[in-house]
Amino acid sequence: MNGIYYYLIAFVVIWILVAIFHDRLSDHGVELNFPVIMWKTKRLRGLISRISNLSPRFWRWYMNIGIIVAFGAMISITYTIVATLPSVFETPSVSIVIPGVDIPGSQIYVPFVYGLIGLATVLVVHEFSHGIQAVGEKIPIKSIGLLLFIILPGAFVEPDEDKLKEAKRISRLRVYAAGSIANVTLAIIALILVSLCAAGIPHYFAEDGIEIGRVVSDSPSEGILKDGMVLEAIDNHKINDSQTYVDVVSSFSPGENISVQTDQGTYDITLAKHPNNDSRGFFGIQANKHFELVDDSLGSLPWILFELVDLFQWVAMLNLGIGLFNLLPIKPLDGGYMLETLLSYKLSEQYYKPIVNALSAVLAMVIVFSIVAGLI
To answer: Does residue 137 sit in the same domain as residue 263?
Structure first.
């Protein structure tokens, strides 16, 4: 069963349970206002306040720099999305990413466990950072919680809206920028950890061919090849390393019948069209380097390095991707509110609100078009 069905079943069960037990759950902070379920709590406000009060000056200057970075990223990501429109059907710049689910047209498959951990870090770091900065700007936090918008999960920190509107513009900018800048910072930290873990791999392991990391659903290889198989040759072309593999697979065309030799036998596969290049053959496998342990002084412990590399890579990728996306000048994203606040320095509300609303509508249509193009 495609992973998306497990998500849909889980969300249907949640909606049914909340609807049935709503009266009891409301005593514990659960609110049901279709199409949104919200769970609110005040328990974590003290923790956020303590973190903010550790060094208010640090948080303030950290986010002063963050504002500059945020606006630079806003310009860059907006330009990238618009500039890639001509090639959107070949390589969509925006796509839906769901852990454990193959999304048609998406270049990325996020493993279920690593994806959930990565998304959890995105939500916690993003919302806590909004809260930490709000407290530092003397804006009270009313509640913290989780939400479910139909089938889209999320988290939130609810500041006092009246106090937020009354705050100085620079204070509001710091609060709006805090979430995404924290995500980008965590992504950088995760990439450093990836480098440190990867540095230890050559000491304990040697590359020994190519392994099938995942077979893409509804692809020519589904039901024939299996995860974990080691590729030895493709159509009598020996596969020694990752570069050999790339050179060989890029030479085939759609419709060719290919013989694939693995450590578990030989299989025949008829190639399909590559989703992003009609002239290339498509196997439907995700290939990884295959390694063998050459230094067993620590037993099997060094194998954990690969797990840590994968985990930190997904933490970095999801925090960077979602953090930057949230900086797009689209309301209700943080980037939309940042642009609105920036324009308010020189323009009155009757001018800057229509500008931001119009830009939000245009960019939202571009993003929807890119997602739909990828699915097609």
So the answer is: no
Is 291 part of a structural domain of the chain? no
Q: How confident is the model at residue 359 (pLDDT cuts 50, 70, 90)?
A: very high
Alpha-carbon span 18 to 328, nearest angstrom:
33
Buried b (16+ CB within 10 A) or exposed e, 349-364: eeebeeebeebbeebe
* Assigned domain for 71 exists: yes
**N- to C-terminal Cα distance for the chain?**
21
d(CA 292, CA 206) in angstroms, rounded, equals 6
Q: Residue 148: what are its φ and ψ, rounded to 5°? A: -135, 110
If asked whether residues 263 and 324 sit together in one domain, one would say no
Report the half-sphere exposure of 157 (CA within 13 A, side-chain side).
30
Q: Which residue has the higher pLDDT, 7 or 22?
A: 22
pLDDT surpasses 90 at 140 = yes
Burial of 20 (0-12, 13-18, 19+ CB in 10 A): exposed
Transcribe 292-308 into DSSP letters: EE---TTTTGGGHHHHH
The pLDDT tens digits of the residues spanning 208-242 come to: 778 888 888 778 888 888 888 888 888 888 887 77
The verdict on residue 11 lying in a domain is yes
HSE (side-chain half, CA atoms, 13 Å) at 200: 15
- The dihedral sign for the CA sequence 58, 124, 115, 97: negative
**DSSP assignment string, 306-321:** HHHHHHHHHHHHHHHH
Residue 345: domain span:
3-197+313-375
Question: What single-letter DSSP state applies at residue 216?
Answer: P
Q: What is the predicted pLDDT for the residue at 355?
A: 95
Does one domain contain both 7 and 86? yes
Q: Distance between CA 299 and CA 292 in Å, rounded?
A: 13
- Please check the confidence at residue 341 and state whether its pLDDT lies above 90: yes
Does residue 297 fall inside a structural domain?
no
